[in-house]
Amino acid sequence: xxxxxxxxxxxxxxxxxxxxxxxxxxxxxxxxxxxxxxxxxxxxxxxxxxxxxxxxxxxxxxxxxxxxxxxxxxxxxxxxxxxxxxxxxxxxxxxxxxxxxxxxxxxxxxxxxxxxxxxxxxxxxxxxxxxxxxxxxxxxxxxxxxxxxxxxxxxxxxxxxxxxxxxxxxxxxxxxxxxxxxxxxxxxxxxxxxxxxxxxxxxxxxxxxxxxxxxxxxxxxxxxxxxxxxxxxxxxxxxxxxxxxxxxxxxxxxxxxx
Length: 258
Prior knowledge:
The protein is of the alpha+beta class and 258 residues long. The protein is built from 10 helices and 8 strands. The protein has helices at 2-28, 34-41, 45-57, 74-86, 88-104, 148-151, 157-163, 179-192, 229-234, 236-253, and strands at residues 61-63, 70-72, 107-114, 117-124, 140-141, 195-198, 205-213, 219-228. The protein has a 6-stranded antiparallel beta sheet with strand order 5-4-3-8-7-6. It has a two-stranded antiparallel sheet with strand order 1-2. A hairpin with a 6-residue loop joins strand 1 (61-63) and strand 2 (70-72). Helix 1 (2-28) packs across helix 3 (45-57), helix 2 crosses helix 3 (45-57) and helix 5 (88-104) runs antiparallel to helix 10 (236-253). The chain is globular and about 55 Å long. The model is unreliable at 1-6 (pLDDT under 50).
């Protein structure tokens, strides 16, 4: 019996490792050589090279440059588009983002947690000539974001500390935020029902975030605006009212958690 199950187990491990390769490239968000992939994964080089070759043949990965580097392939894009077109939940969220952009002309985002990191899951760019965008699916430390102050609002203080990596408190501008200060901002944002700040990453933008809550009033996602800094300050109240109205409407539509 054990001998018969071995090929299936090997195929399952190979499939799992193939997805680990894709996840690693997505997290790093750059082209990588198979040797580097194997090193970062702590996996046998021969196994990684074999899987990379297979994924290249399937257009799941693509060659990138002349140094043997590979990146995510076109087949993943079409699979993602098919999933997005099929899932009603994301259609509703896209409609919400479209409405926000129509009303504000600013870049709207739907953001959530993936593991203990923050990601922009969906985005609609604004109508302004000043283009603001983000890398969809890029894993970002939670304390670097406006949304992070809301996404952890239902955690206890100790749960927040245990949830985040120590390096997460090092902000992109080189400063370090203490866990006590971050937790205080989480509590204030949760009480206010929103959080806004001048972007830590981009000196020209201002970020807005409001919670999208489940039936137990836990924040499971956020709706966000990323605006030119002066516009954000000038229209703060109107933008927050718009986001909160959109979040309330979206919550009423959603029947399941994200």
